[in-house]
Amino acid sequence: MNAQLSTRLRHLRLSGMVEALPARVAQAEAAPLAHLEFLELLVDDELSRRADRLFARRLKQAGIVTLKTLADFDWTFNAKLPKAKLVSEPGAGLKPAVSFSYSWTGTASSSMSHSWRPRAA
Known about the structure:
Distance between the termini: 53 Å
Number of strands: 2
Strand order of the largest sheet: 1-2
Structural class: mainly alpha
Radius of gyration: 24 Å
Order of helices and strands: HHHHEE
Helix content: 40-55%
Oligomer: single chain
Largest sheet: 2 strands, antiparallel
Number of helices: 4
């Protein structure tokens, strides 16, 4: 790979593309890819790398050391949980009971009023 290209991509903070470029070039040479397809694959690689790093950073900030799956869950702990629904459709039926919206009215020089009120679900 061209060192100047690698430097420029890193300068643009596209290090995911730098890492994926040799493999993608080999793929494009093995099975001819259109230029746009090649670029789309590189952009997908960069986005995927960023999402992975963001997820890892958030896990670290939250102090989560071990990831657990639903396969590890003790379903006998609460028999009322709808196991079939939760396993087949992750996130289905899980809504917060009440959500809040915060509104602020006023300016710095006038009196300010703050209110918390439930938002219609």
